[in-house]
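User: Show me a protein chain along with its predicted structure.
Assistant: Here is one chain, sequence first, then structure tokens.
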Amino acid sequence: TTEESSAASDVYKRQVFASPGDLHAVQTVLSFQPDANAEIAQPNGEYDIAVVLTSTGLEKVTELAQVGLAEATRVLKQQGGEDNPALAGLQVYDTMFAHAREEFGDVTVSMQLDDESSLRITKNIEIKSSGHLAPIMKNIGISEQDLLAGIPDMPYVMAMGFAMPEGSFQQMIDVSKLMMGSMQQLYQMTPEQIDSMMDLSTKYFKDMQGMSFALGVGEGDDPLYGQMVAAIYVKDSKKYIEDYKKYWDELGDVLKDADESFIAGASLEETTLSGHRVLKVQMPLPAMANLPAQQQAEIDAIMSKMFGSEEMKMYIGAVDDQTVLIAYT
């Protein structure tokens, strides 16, 4: 430490350790006095560790990340050309960083280790009024119902739920269309096919009223996503099931020429599970073409840990008049 850094930290009753080269940065941070009208993100509740990222910091971090991705993209193109399969993965991250900068302001993450040694993580995100998410979030009022209703009573790693007021479904579709359009290497679909897919979603699922989701705790050798469930709240669950079948029938026509799209490889059949009528959807996991054998084996091993096989299975069934349960395996 230095006398200067110790003196600067006396105001906060902390001792600051830094290398000489970082002294100026430490002094700048410790001497910073925010404007009286400035809104600074603050963690909520009790916590042991908290991290605050301001909107300015988020912009700089995402911009630097994209600079790194651009350089990695340049190198991969030199090594494998425009068809290098690794480029799709970099494009996904580039899109995520760009949308984070456009949609989010201040971000706070706090962590607490409770009495049962469970790590509790709380994240607060400011939604920018200029982004695509703001109109959706603005229309969502305070729910009078349990947002996790319909989810099985089970231990979980993560759970979430949200209500969907009238008109918000189309806004969600618009955001989905934007995301899929920016990751065409992953989805292997043309802009026209993406538009048609979103139009079908609007046609058949626009009456969705809310959704809850939980990632359960697996046992033994269960894959990471082997205990994943979602509950969808609709006006008529039986009609939703019938519409779901029509959706996949028509989507098959839309994607008949999209041979490389993993979505086009999905299949649907009607079956019975524990005495209940359900729809079973099998979908191959996204694959990267032209990968060396060793890299493909490594990816297959990761996918096996996550999903347990080379495809994802979904079982969709009505549990009451207005609730549809989806189980992922």
